[in-house]
User: Fold these one by one.
Assistant:
Number 1:
Amino acid sequence: MTTEQVRVVVVDDHLMFRAGVRASLDGRIDVVGEAEDVGSAIAAIREHRPDVVLLDVHLPGGRGGGGAEVARECADLTPGTRFLALSVSDAADDVVAVIRAGARGYVTKAITGADLSDAVVRVAQGDAAFSPRLAGFVLDAFGTAPADVAERDDELDRLSAREQEVMRLIARGYAYREVAGELFISVKTVETHVSAVLRKLQLSSRHELTRWAAQRKLL
Amino acid sequence: MTTEQVRVVVVDDHLMFRAGVRASLDGRIDVVGEAEDVGSAIAAIREHRPDVVLLDVHLPGGRGGGGAEVARECADLTPGTRFLALSVSDAADDVVAVIRAGARGYVTKAITGADLSDAVVRVAQGDAAFSPRLAGFVLDAFGTAPADVAERDDELDRLSAREQEVMRLIARGYAYREVAGELFISVKTVETHVSAVLRKLQLSSRHELTRWAAQRKLL
DNA sequence: TTGACCATCGGGGGTCACCCTGAACCGACC
DNA sequence: GGTCGGTTCAGGGTGACCCCCGATGGTCAA
């Protein structure tokens, strides 16, 4: 890896900044192309097929998706290319969005030339590269699925077993007749249960029930 | 951060390895406790409330969840504590599992004492710490959603602007009359738009529309 | 100018959702 | 034994939903 330079395309809407990046990167890196908006970035990446794209997060053009749009569009077209986001923003939303789009790292523009070169090399080798503090945002966004199992529901406990059964089907969009067929009871009985559910949960329609159940991940 | 030592609990099922970790960590780190299985780890963490837990991934005891189980159990109990996974395994599944459980980093046991000390300090400061190559596993597991974005646009673009507006309100549970009042149009016009939306999306009721919109996160 | 699409309305009608009262059976509890 | 709650079902009613058939006017492109 010391024998071959890392081929890089720099995407940023400011000419001066691109010149600065080009001047700051050391001999391990070869800037093979530049682009200044979403469209020209995609074209340049497809043409040069670089190892790494240094990608500004906020870009003109395209459908307003900025750097994340570029990464998404090129993910299938150029599988060997990795993306390193480079932005003034250190907002968690920006970081998570572009990482979700497929970028392998995110550094702020306060970085030094040497550190940026290191980050580019690391990303080229398949590793991740983050400015301090930013990696935590990604991990925070990552660990937000299996943590809510312990939540008990006293509202749900007020429903009888049969009422819960009917409630789940109704919340999933089943019609009364379909619920009746599913549970081998009459439509009128379903109506009775639904009325009881709505009354006990203090809801007024099956639509509210759907949202209520969705919020509690009961679907 | 040079004035205060980072307080650490070391969790590993091998006494010899714990001794090695203790001997390898430098003066910035203070090992305040040790544990050798899931149960004793949770107890030690609750007792000492360390800044960082060095956590072996494969542990005896508990419900077989290993280090991930420890991290999950302690997430709510000791919010100030961060977890750094430490394992011989460099398998992607192990890495993703323990990160998903809340760990802020993952290093292999091939690490040097100096690098491990650095990683502990970085995690204590809220940053992430990964051995080379391992961070990529997490990012790979993270970017597994953008496939439905393109499909969403195709389907959604077939709706006119007004139809999308009506669709969002209907999907949120608004009644026709409420939508009419919100958009200053007649109930009949709302009906027309809803019919067009259902026909274009090949749905048969507003309930299916709600699920359709929820799947695409349009709410 | 014509055609296509969109947004805005209306009548009519069939189905569905929701509520009301009322009732029967069963098991648990006092 | 009486009371209470759960489950089952019925008739009747009102409004919401969803479709069919129309109609008018606007914009935009061929």
Number 2:
Amino acid sequence: MMSNITTFVNLDNVSEIATPRRRRRRSDADRSAGAILLAAKEILAAQPHGSVEDIAAAAGVSRQTVYAHFKTREALIGAVIDVITGEAVAEMDAARLDEGPAANALLRLLDASWRTLQRYPLLLSIATTADVEADHARHQPVVDHLDRLLTRGRRSGEFTTDVPAPWLATAVVTLGHAAGDAVNAGRMTLPDATEALARSVLRVCGVNPATITDLVSGSEPRT
Amino acid sequence: MMSNITTFVNLDNVSEIATPRRRRRRSDADRSAGAILLAAKEILAAQPHGSVEDIAAAAGVSRQTVYAHFKTREALIGAVIDVITGEAVAEMDAARLDEGPAANALLRLLDASWRTLQRYPLLLSIATTADVEADHARHQPVVDHLDRLLTRGRRSGEFTTDVPAPWLATAVVTLGHAAGDAVNAGRMTLPDATEALARSVLRVCGVNPATITDLVSGSEPRT
DNA sequence: GTTATGTTTGACATCATGTCAGATTTAACC
DNA sequence: GGTTAAATCTGACATGATGTCAAACATAAC
């Protein structure tokens, strides 16, 4: 039977009263969950419509085991997105967004997000479509970084304050997605898209035109 | 039997050689197709995952009849998008984009697209996800209008030329989508979104900041 | 080595897409 | 108005995906 897996909710550190001290979670459970998550990431990246069976096969696991760890297909997809979000956040953390002029930091942030998006080209197609709220909540960690940076830039006078900050964040993210799409649809080359994205994002943020020309001039170092 | 419906390809004016002059297409066929299309528009607007059976029911038609007119569910969705695109184009035509300053015309275009998008809030969720090419091709008529306007503005010096024109078009469309999302997700009020979108789009296009402040100042007439 | 935990196998229910064929209705044509 | 082809309806069927359940089996924890 597979009735007792605690992947959904972590109860490890809960000291229940009437619990006759349960046994520890088995190690292969984590191993399976990890394999499934990894396989799902790959399968879905290749074909967003891939079935749970495909994913199970790729993970070297039976289909039912997948359901033992993830309630539904949607839940699995959600978990995959969480993983990718984590990767994105990690790369953004490495970009040291708190240092230097906000405009430069913004370009570094674009680079970071960019790399993540390029690694999972069909990321957008995977989008659950079902609950928009949950989808939005998942992006929160990424948006938070962006918000923080935008706020800093607005305070320093580098960025515009005549539109709401959340909208600015949305606009930046959305432009990033569009540029990513354009590239992996073959409508733009990667360098062209990179430059166009940089210019447009800086413009949206209200950065001084002279500064933009200064920052975006080919392959300058973004320190 | 329902084997001879010519909805897929219009053969009306083809003078076949060995055809023993076939009978005219029956009127109820068009009526059904129309009803199905209309029902699909409504059902899918309410719930993008609505089944073909739901749509058939709403159209007052059997499920099989739907398949008689549209090969697959995807084809039906494609047709729905075509219809909506048509509506959008009509509204854009009414906006007289060739007249007056390009910046003003751009704001009128935003209004027009905006109205269409608000009428079908879940339009984005419907997106087929399957063939990106076809999806892109469908938007072409809308993009054409935008391209034309952008080109005009670039020639007149109102809009920037330091990013590719197609990218500019993509950016404008994508910002419009984002603003629409923000509104129907309740993250922004409609007037706020309208103003923010206007400002951001004009900025992306490189319109003079002074001109922007001038154009966007609440509820001014956009002549 | 015992035992709970996890995985597997196989079966099953459900639902949606898509197809086929026969019976029936309806519009086109004379 | 009657004939006939076109269109729809009914019902059935195949397929494939999502979930669920239960018993047999494997393995890691104690």
